[in-house]
Every structure is written in structure tokens, then in C-alpha cells.
Amino acid sequence: MNIHRFNFNPISENTWLVWDDTLEAAVIDAGNSNSPEDRELDEFVADNGLRVVLAIQTHGHFDHAMGVAHVVERYGARTQWMKLWLYAWTCWHRRTRLQPCCRK
Questions:
Q1: What is the reported pTM?
Q2: How large is the C-alpha radius of gyration of the chain?
Q3: Which run of H or of E encompasses 44?
Q4: CA distances from 24 to 16, 35, 73 (A)
Q5: Which residues contact 17 (CB under 8 A, 6 or more apart)?
Q6: pLDDT interval class at 100 (50, 70, 90)
Q7: Which domains does the chain have, with CATH numbers?
Q8: Helices 68-75 & 35-47, crossing angle to 10 degrees?
Q9: What is the rounded average pLDDT of the residues 30-41?
């Protein structure tokens, strides 16, 4: 397992890129928020011959998800929310009886 840390966006969020011997990679908490940060991520991926297949969000803070759209659009990566965070959100959602923004 290989790990590389990027420090992105104005509040210095840590984005992690992990990959194995197959060179398939996952971006964890994609915080890249502008073109130079997108380029930094893209150049690292290209320089190391990686294939990004997954974008993982550990929780829903905005600074940990600013770059998810770039990762999905650029690499066709799937997205995955960590189950513990999703469980906590679901419990809160049920308690407050709010509807998700994507539902009609």
C-alpha cells in the first residue's frame, strides 16, 4: 500500500491518495479547490502511472469534498461515503425528519 498526502484549499485540508501494486488508486477527502490544485493531483497521478477508480469521503465537511467533482469527471471514479458517517447522517436525518436535498 502506498500513500501520498496533499495539503489543499484555503484551510489546509489533507487529501490522501492511496494505491497498491495494481496501480489502482483512491482519493480520500478530495479537497482540491482550484485549477492549480487539480493540476497538482493530476500530475502526481500521471507521473506515477496511477488509475484513480474511487473517491472516498470520510465525512461531509465542505473542505473534504471540494474536489470530488474533479476526480469523478477527470477519472470516472466511483464515489463512496464511509459507512460510519453515513450511518450517523441517517440517524440525524431521521431524528430531525428532514428530507435529503436530492429527494422530491
A1: 0.77
A2: 15
A3: helix 35-47
A4: 14, 23, 17
A5: 3, 4, 5, 6, 25, 26, 27, 28, 41, 44, 45, 50, 52
A6: very low
A7: 2-96 (3.60.15.10)
A8: 50
A9: 95
